[in-house]
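SAMPLE LOG
Freezer: B-3
Tube label: C17
Construct: single chain, 95 aa
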Amino acid sequence: MNSTLRVISLALALTLLPDTLLAADRVSRGRAETTALQLVPGGAIVSGGLEKDKGNKLVWAFDVSIPGSRNVKAIAIDAYTGMVLSNTLEAPEDR
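STRUCTURE (predicted):
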């Protein structure tokens, strides 16, 4: 295989890698969930996963239930640093 074809093959493989692999050796889902749950005492993860934010940054995004409320907290955590990027209240009609 010539070097040009190898470079193209490698570029294609990197493009197709799932975001989970790109976040390897970074913040684990478990650590991100723990951080999110600490922000909502008694809450539970309703949904979540790796996403790219508007700036194309890889983030863990979770909806966390609020005890005694129909609202959830939408929490985004940087997948590389573990920092909380946003923590907003969402009503059922906003979802």
